[in-house]
Amino acid sequence: MTTLSPTSNSAPERAKPIRPDARLHGAWLNVARWAWMVAALLLAGNFVFSILPYYTALPTVCRVVTQCATWQLAPDNLPALARLHISLDAYAAYTVSINVVASLLFWAVGILIFWRKSREWLGLSVSLVLILVGSSGVADSLQGTFLTVNSPLLLGVLVLLFNVLQWPAVGLFLLTFPTGRFTPRWSWLVVLLWMGQLGYFWLTTFVPAFAAGLPLVLLITWGSTLGVQMYRYLRSYTAVQRQQVKWFLFVVVVGFLLDIANIVLIGLIAPFNAPDSWFKLLDGTVTALFFMTVPVGIGIAIFR
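Now predict its structure.
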């Protein structure tokens, strides 16, 4: 009786595994490392010099919503502080601390990946994305505050430039993780959706009516990215690469569910979404915990 070999034409066709991560050599490696370090120094300056103005803003009560710093309290929130016997200064110190801790975790994992994986394109790009997010603070809290103070024009332009690059960089990471390559090759076009998403975010700032279209924009951008990853997972990934993706998704999904639960409680359940609810004071903490799951998941996946 004739048996079919693993390479027989009758066997189900399977895509070839993706080649190992691309590595940089010689002058290109040195240029990439120096560019990374220059970017890291600029971002570190933004991070450090944003902490004080953010801390200065939080102990004051925000009376104009459009001018509030992230998690700066409005007059309606003060009764919750009074019932818990917490001063505005104590609230400000805690909120800044949790932001800084979350940001430092991004920095620590980003620097570790750069130290161990800077020869690989994926290591350089992932570590840069991590320090980009870390320098901005949770939900851009530190960066947003920094841009409102009288900073030198050149530094402000550089910080704005990094902010523009942040979301496309996140899309680039999600589309090439964990191999550092676009597979299929046309998938680089999805990065254009991430750039368009950033432009739409800005558009809603000037035309609030466009905010109604945000769910659709997010669905198209994130859905396309997820579709590419699912295709690669089923057709191209090796066993090790599948494990990397599983670790990353597991940790991030846990944090995502935590953040969704927070949004549902604040948005839909009356005792929690009242302006003077003590639960609203925890919004920054829950969001920071969600952010912390991202570098943990990436670190585990990159180092397997």
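The chain has one domain: 26-302.
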